[in-house]
Write a structure and sequence with these properties.
Elements lengths: L1 H9 L3 E5 L3 E6 L3 E7 L2 E4 L2 E5 L1 H4 L10 E3 L2 E2 L2 E2 L2 H19 L6 E6 L5 H13 L4 E6 H8 L10 E6 L4 E7 L2 E8 L3 H16 L1 E2 L2 H11 L10 E8 L5 E7 H7 L1 H16 L3 H10 L1 E4 L8 H9 L3 E3 L6 H9 L3 H7 L4
Parallel strand pairs: 1-9, 9-10, 11-17, 17-18
Antiparallel strand pairs: 1-2, 2-3, 4-5, 4-6, 7-8, 11-12, 12-13, 14-15, 15-16
Helix pairs in contact: 3-4, 5-12, 6-7, 9-11
Length: about 350
């Protein structure tokens, strides 16, 4: 009885958004304390690096080093590597924010994952040192982070475009009425750019180069900006290093299928919306969040295709982590909405 009480008094509870692209950790009372790429480098079964340092090794590592993205399409693809990466991140912040007591951890997950995938998330958190693990869906946490009135008797629609998944969730009275989940996101956009450059320019490029192209030229549809970007890679024909120049219209065409999938996900959710909640959405519009929400022109495209007001969240990138962090202060809501692993 005494030990559990002491652990609650001295442990720092954490909210963790273990995403396909990035891992973000919020400590109760301290805010965002870690934001690192979800990448880990291993050598001889030991962590060599994690986060930005490990990401810089992608495609450049020698045979003795293995660089892994342990989270794919929003779910844990490599549990052992994910646990080692999370343990490394927790150790990094332990000196500043944690005590030797094991923390209570709230993890965000995509809404469309299976029971087995939920258990995998829970097991990774426990293996990394959690005392107790709660799970909450990412759209719910992102809606709280965006300041949406999800506890009211009013429909709220949020679209989260993450690294591995896109989810369109209809929320009301602190519950999820309906959610459309598509295992497609920013990472799929990177893959689409890689395939486009390979097909149209006979050039092989890596994920880091594709991400740089997306950030520099990415757009939901063609624009009149006439921007260009130098792309460096290996020629398919002669096998030699080459440089080609990409235009923003080419990148928009490469991303077209990914963008269409997002629009269709929103349309499918709206088609299943009850009439009273549909009236609320017509009045208050849609909020988009996640790193993909920053894709140039995505809000305008959705506005034109759906015919509703579309707003980018005030915290598009960190919203899910910050929203989960706010839930740490409300144990009643936490127990009400947290999924059972």
């Amino acid at each position: 009885m005494v030990l559990p009480l002491l652990s609650r008094l001295f442990a720092t509870d954490l909210a963790i958004d273990l995403g396909t692209s990035n891992t973000r950790i919020v400590a109760r009372g301290a805010g965002l304390v870690l934001d690192e790429p979800s990448v880990v480098a291993m050598r001889d079964n030991e962590v060599l690096a994690a986060g930005r340092e490990a990401k810089a090794m992608l495609g450049r590592e020698p045979g003795a080093v293995t660089v892994v993205r342990p989270v794919a399409n929003g779910v844990i693809a490599e549990p052992d590597f994910a646990q080692k990466m999370l343990t490394h991140f927790l150790a990094r912040i332990e000196r500043r924010w944690l005590t030797h007591w094991r923390p209570q951890i709230l993890m965000t997950t995509p809404s469309g994952i299976t029971q087995v995938e939920r258990r995998a998330v829970r097991d990774v958190a426990l293996g990394a040192g959690a005392r107790e693990v709660y799970l909450v869906t990412e759209p719910f946490a992102a809606a709280i982070g965006a300041g949406m009135p999800i506890q009211e008797a009013r429909g709220s629609l949020i679209v989260t475009v993450g690294g591995g998944t896109t989810e369109t969730a209809l929320l009301s009275l602190a519950g999820m009425v309906h959610c459309e989940s598509v295992r497609s996101g920013g990472s799929d956009m990177d893959d689409a750019i890689i395939q486009w450059v390979r097909k149209h320019h006979s050039l092989l490029i890596g994920l880091r180069q594709a991400e740089a192209i997306k950030l520099a030229l990415g757009s939901a549809r063609p624009t009149s900006a006439d921007r260009q970007f130098e792309v460096k890679g290996r020629g398919l024909i002669d096998g030699l290093p080459r440089i080609v120049v990409l235009s923003d219209d080419e990148v928009a065409e490469a991303l077209r299928d990914s963008v269409v999938a997002i629009v269709e996900s929103v349309r499918a959710c709206l088609e299943r919306t009850p009439p009273e909640l549909a009236a609320d959405i017509a009045e208050h519009g849609i909020v988009i969040a996640g790193g993909g929400a920053l894709l140039h022109g995505l809000d305008d495209l959705l506005r034109d295709e759906i015919g509703l007001a579309v707003t980018v969240s005030s915290e598009p990138v960190n919203g899910a982590a910050l929203g989960a962090g706010k839930m740490l202060d409300g144990l009643e809501m936490l127990r009400r909405v947290a999924a059972s692993p």
